[in-house]
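Feature request disguised as a bug report, sorry. It would help if multi-protein outputs had a clear separator. Right now it looks like this:
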Amino acid sequence: MRVLCLIHEDDGPAGLFAEVLRERGDDLLEWNVSQGPPPEAPESFDAVVVFGGSMHVDQEDRHPWLRGQYELVRGAVERGQPLLGVCLGGQLLAHAVGAHVGPAPRPEIGWHEVGLTSEGARDPVLGSLPERFDAFQWHSYAFEVPEGGELLAESPVCAQAFRLGRSAWAVQFHPEVTREMLELWRSGSEGTAPPISLEPIGRWNELGRRLAHAFFDQVDG
C-alpha cells in the first residue's frame, strides 16, 4: 500500500501515522504542500492523509497553495480515493465540498473530552475508539458536517469527526501527535497557550494507533 501524507508545516509531520505505516510494511510519501505540489499524482496512491497547520481556510491570500489543496481533496472525494483529514486537513475537506468552516465558539488547546455519536460507534474507523475519550486538540477554527455527511464525534464546542460517503473521513483532534511533537509545540507556544500536560500522551498514542490501523485497514480491504 502507498499512502500520500500531506503536511503544511515542517513541525506538523505525519508523526504516529508514519510510524504505523512503516510498522505495517507500507510505503508513504510525506510532502509539505506549502513548498509546491506533490512530485507524484495523488491518484497514483492508495490513500491520502492530510494533516494540520496553523493557517486557516480563509487565508488563501496569504497561502495561495490552499486553493490547490481544495482541488486535490475534492478530486480524492470524487474518485472515491480513501482520504483522512486531520485538524486543518479535516477543515480543508469540509470546505472543499461546500461545508462551512470558521472560528469555533472557543479554541480547544490541550486535552478535551470527545464523545462518539451512535453513528460513530458503528463506523469502521471512528468505532475503533472508546465511546468517550480525552483527545489532544489544537485549533481555533472548526468545520460543520458537509451535506450528505455523517457526524461521528463531537465535543461541547464543535463537531469532532465526520464521514463523507464510504471513503472520506475528517477528525478535528490530533491522533498523529507524538510526545516529541507535543514537546516541540509546547515549547514554541510558551506564554501564548495554556499549560499542556504530557502525562496522557501514552494512552493517547494507543488510541492514535487504533485509529490509524482502522483507517489503513479500510484502504487495504
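(second protein starts here, but nothing in the output says so)
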Amino acid sequence: MERRTFLTSVLASSVLAGVAASEEGRQAGSGQASPEFYVWRRYVLRNGTQLRRLADFLQKAAVPALNRLGHKPIGAFEVVFGMPAPTVFLLTPCSSLDSLAALDAGLDADTEYAAAGAPYIDAPATDAPYVRQEVALLSAFPKMPRVEVPAATAAKGPRLFELRTYENPSEKAQRAKIRMFTDMGEIEIFRRCGLTPVFFSRTIVGLHIPNITYMLVHDNMAGREKSWDNFRNDPEWKKVAATPGYSDAEIVSNITTVFLRPAAYSQI
C-alpha cells in the first residue's frame, strides 16, 4: 500500500487548479482569515480486525503526522447509526490549498510516520486494513471559517455528533440555502436553540453535489431532540422558513443524517 495516497486519492492537480480561483476570491479584499478546506475521508470496514488496525494507524501514525504538518484539530468519528458500520470518518482541516497540495509530500518525508504506520502502509492486498475509502473536499462557510471544538472535548466528556448533508437541486438552490444559514440568521438561531455547530461547509469535490454538509454536537440523544424541538418551534425560524423562494421544497432535494461518536484519539 503506497504512502503517497492521502491527498492524491482526493484530487488530481487539475482539480486543485480549478478550485484555486475560488480560494483567491475568498482571500481577496478581506482582512479576515480565509475559511478552511476540509478533507472528509470515510473508511469502509469489515467486521473483524480492520477497525482496530485502522485505529492503531490513525492514532499512532496519521494524526500525529498531520499535526506536525500543521493540520489541527483532527476529528475521528465512528458511526453509531445512519449508515452501515463499522465505518470511520476522518476530518483534516487545511488552512489553504497550498497546505492541501503539500500534504502527501509532507507525509512522505516524515520518517516517524513511516515507522509508526508500517503495519498499515505495508499491508498486503490479501490483508488490507479497509474495504475502501471515499473522500470529499469541503469548503468552510466564511461565516464559520474554522472548526469549533466542543467544550466537552478537553475533558473527554460525552459527545454525540450529528452529520447532516443537504443535497440541493441546483447551484442556485445551494446558494439560497447558504444565504439562509449565513445571512438570514439560521446559524444564530441554531445556537440560541441549543444546536451547537462544529463546522459548516459546502462540498467542492465529492458525491451528490451540489450539497451542504455540516456537523452538530449534542450531549446525548435526549438533548438533541430537545434542541431540535426548540428550533422547530422558534418564532424567528418560522419567519425565516416562510420567506418566499426559501422553502425546503424549493432548495433542498434530500437530507441525510448520520450519528457519530468520537474515537478515543479524536481531537474534536
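Even a blank line would do. Unrelated, but nice: The mean pLDDT is 91.
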